[in-house]
Amino acid sequence: MSTQLSATTTTAPAASFAADGLLPTTVNAEFRCTGCGHAAPAQYHDPEADAEDNQLLPKPGWARQQALHTAQVTLEKRARKALSLRRCPQCGARDPLALRRSYWMALLPIAAVLPATFMVSVIATVMLLPGPPGQGIALRLPLFVGALCSLIIGAVITPRQHRRLLRGADDAVRIS
Fold first, then answer.
1. Which of 58, 85, 112 is the last residue of a domain?
2. pLDDT of the chain, 176 residues: tens digit per residue
3. Residues 128, 66: one domain?
4. Domain range spanning residue 15?
5. Is residue 121 part of a domain?
6. Interatomic CA distance for residues 88 and 96, integer angstroms
7. Left (φ > 0), alpha (ψ -120 to 50) or beta: where does 104 sit?
8. Same domain? 51 vs 79
9. Residue 132: its pLDDT value, please?
10. Cα(7)–Cα(9) distance, rounded to whole angstroms?
11. Shared domain check, 152 and 116
């Protein structure tokens, strides 16, 4: 079943956050599943905002307004992303387009890990299996082992990262 989710965020006025001197960490939004027609109010609480060091706003003035605006825009962007990945409580489906995008985001750490894995595998294979340098199999075996190790590591890391992204979206959004 194909389901598309849309998130419309509505936030509290900036003055209510500025009064206590802290950056906003929660956004009220509307969760809507166009596949089954389920609509419900939702609340997104940013788990990354609690871990950030810079939670206090600067003194009143332009810098405070800019910091508040930047935090609000970032929070709304994270809320839209999490709401699109959230499973519909009525039909249990997720947005297929958002799932594809999140899978590509899960592939990003692989871009950093695979070249190093490939090089280490090739070097280790050459060192462990010394042979005459002029023969064809001796030239191709390290490349094959490097590609195989990279494939195995990619196949392990990507699904785990994707599940972590989906679990994070489910935990951050509360649907009433």
1. 85
2. 333 334 444 444 444 454 556 677 788 888 888 678 788 888 888 877 666 555 666 667 777 778 778 888 888 888 888 888 888 888 888 888 888 888 888 888 888 888 888 888 888 887 887 666 656 566 677 888 888 888 898 888 888 888 888 888 888 888 87
3. no
4. 5-85
5. yes
6. 12
7. alpha
8. yes
9. 65
10. 6
11. yes
Note whether 108 and 156 are same-domain residues.
Answer: yes
Q: Decide: 150 and 118 in contact? Cβ < 8 Å.
A: yes
124 sits in which H/E element: helix 96-128
C-alpha pair distances (Å), 144 with each of 27, 30, 114, 171 = 50, 51, 14, 41
* Residue 123 belongs to some domain of the structure: yes
Alpha carbons 120 and 147: distance in angstroms, whole number = 11
Structure tokens given for 86? 């959230």
